[in-house]
Design brief:
This protein has helices at 21-40, 62-73, 94-104, 115-125, 139-153, 170-182, 198-211, 221-225, 245-252, 259-264, 285-294, 303-306, 313-332; strands at residues 51-56, 77-82, 107-111, 129-131, 160-164, 185-189, 214-218, 230-233, 271-274. Strand 6, helix 7 (198-211) and strand 7 form a beta-alpha-beta unit. The model has no long low-confidence stretch (mean pLDDT 96). It is of the alpha/beta class. The strands form 2 sheets. The protein has a 5-stranded parallel β-sheet with strand order 7-6-5-8-9. The structure holds phosphoric acid mono(formamide)ester. Phosphoric acid mono(formamide)ester binds at residues 60-63, 133, 141, 275-276.
Length: 336
């Protein structure tokens, strides 16, 4: 593990395709090492004295907390800047804000809508920028997901990784391209109207050709989940699409992750993953509203699967912190 350290210093982390297979796998292995050090109480303060800006235009539990705790563990100072705290694009251009932030901070995390914004921050700030989710990609999520896969199966290559649900959201894009990059048998199972964009599928197929991976996009649940090692799903309605509940419920109900679907994999060792938050019961305001307005007690995954022995969702959530720490340490610290 960690035999060769790729040169990440000063590099931004915007989407999976910007990295080689070796670099992506290195980050996962580095996260594994940092996780082990954290559990043993071994300090790893690679970013002592650095200042990190955390820009959030959207709400977040995992990403915000993961970046904050990772900064503190690495010896850096995190500064949270919410959507009403700074002028980003409203009264000051992204370019000018990026230049100002780059004079004061050593690294910048961004969560927001347009992917272009995170690209502009990276172009103009002069410091590493890390994508905490945009409309197109969620690459720090992919790292945490693949770390969870490696912890459970000991490898990434050849893993049958099946995403079921809204196939054209940021998480699906990232998993499709990331899975192809590292050599997985990656499948998107979705209704045709929610298939990933053709350019994303093309990108994934090109990467799979080099890595020995496989890419499948299908509307057929039985075909898609056969032999799966991993079943993954995400919410049916993403942030900013809250008017689409009725339409998505109609389209995606046949793709709900139930125990029947889990059994269809034919793999008793399969694991269930979800980036969270999940609508698996009525313990949320949304869950109650959906039940009241649409009569659906559970959405993308049943409570039975969510709480089953197959479910690794809380290991996966914890792994957000270890993998985000690896990205920051590798791009801003000096790892030996
Ligand atoms: N999975 C994820 O990005 O969670 P948050 O929205 O809570 O950051």
């Amino acid at each position: 593990m960690l035999q060769t350290v790729p040169n990440f210093y000063g590099k931004s982390f915007l989407c999976e395709k910007d990295f080689s297979k070796e670099e992506f796998v290195y980050l996962i292995d580095l996260a594994m090492k940092l996780k082990d050090e954290k559990k043993q109480g071994i300090p790893h303060r690679y970013l002592e004295g650095k200042n990190i800006a955390l820009l959030f235009e959207k709400p977040s539990t995992r990403t915000r907390c993961a970046f904050t705790v990772a900064c503190v563990d690495l010896g850096a100072h995190p500064e949270y800047l919410g959507k009403d705290d700074i002028q980003l694009g409203k009264k000051e251009s992204i370019e000018d804000t990026a230049k100002v932030l780059g004079r004061m901070f050593d690294g910048i995390e961004f969560r927001g809508f347009e992917h272009k914004k995170v690209e502009m921050l990276a172009e103009h700030s002069g410091v590493p920028v890390w994508n905490g989710l945009t409309d197109l990609w969620h690459p720090t999520q992919t790292l945490a997901d693949f770390l969870t896969v490696k912890e459970n199966f000991g490898r990434l290559e050849g893993i049958k990784f099946v995403y079921v649900g809204d196939g054209r959201n940021n998480v699906a894009n990232s998993l499709l391209v990331g899975g192809a990059l590292v050599g997985m048998d990656v499948r998107i199972v979705a209704p045709e109207t929610l298939f990933p964009a053709p350019e994303v599928v093309e990108m994934a197929k090109n990467l799979a050709e080099k890595s020995g991976g496989r890419v499948t996009v299908t509307a057929d649940v039985e075909e898609g989940v056969a032999g799966a090692d991993v079943i993954y799903t995400d919410v049916w309605v993403s942030m900013g699409e809250e008017d689409k509940f009725a339409e998505r419920i109609a389209l995606l109900s046949p793709y709900q992750v139930t125990m029947d679907l889990v059994n269809q994999t034919g793999n008793k060792n399969m694991i269930f993953l979800h980036c969270l938050p999940a609508f698996h019961d009525q313990e949320t305001t949304y869950g109650k509203d959906i039940f009241a307005n649409h009569g659906l007690a559970e959405m993308e995954v049943t409570d039975e699967v969510f709480r089953s022995e197959h479910s690794m969702v809380f290991d996966q959530a914890e792994n957000r912190m270890h993998t985000i720490k690896a990205v920051m340490a590798a791009t801003l610290g000096h790892i030996e």
